[in-house]
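Supplementary Methods, section 5.1.

A reviewer requested that the exact input to the structure prediction be made available. We therefore reproduce it here, unchanged from the version used in the analyses.
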Amino acid sequence: MPNQKILYITTEMYPYQEDTNMAAVVNKMALKMHNEGNDVRVFMPRFGQISERKFQLHEVIRLSGMNIIINDLDQPLIIKVASLPGERLQVYFIDNEEYFKRKQYYFDDEGNPFEDNDERAIFFARGVIETIKKLNWVPDVIHLNGWMSSFVPIYLKTYYESDTYFKDAKIVLSLYNEKDAPLAGNIDEKLKFDNISGLKALDNPSVKTFVIESMDYVNMVVKGDEFLDEDLDKAFNETSTSKSEYLDVDSINQLY
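The structure derived from this sequence is encoded token-by-token as follows.
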């Protein structure tokens, strides 16, 4: 079914990340849909490990320059873009010196989770939403991959609830076995600043509890890894949201 506008929001994508199932799956899904005649855009964080020179990232001035307020602090949003190597598929990178310059993803060299992982996820989610609106490009399907992207539907159905921009978009959430980590104990205050409260995940804020929470805010949940860990599998089996077992990439358009 070509001519759909498909937005992939992901934390990983090959070749910017290698050797993970998520990175490979997102690359294959996006390319398949692009090559079948759909209008595909990909958004991901510009982690410090992604070489701007190697992948020819450049800043998009007309999209940058916005500030996103997190917990009463202004954080400048920088948007960079690159074409997937060898393809005519655009990848947009959400960047910010404070949150994404460091060379590690979510854990420091001692294996401790970064204390601001929650703020990084909030910034990423809101940065994607605001940039899509600035592009004046309305997606038909939003496909979420990676725990940071799980903040997107939570924000769309709460903070942006009265905004009709995304009202017709269908949201798909892929579940992956990601390393769990606690999120800051005061994340409830940061979300309350954006008038978000009452989330079950706030009882025990972590990477996994927010992914599980986001299942209630999407139209379809699909297994991104064929076999999920016990907690995710339990949440998958219990959710009342429409769901799909693991699909190989060739069948992914059945979801859309």
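The radius of gyration is 17 Å. These observations are discussed further in the main text.
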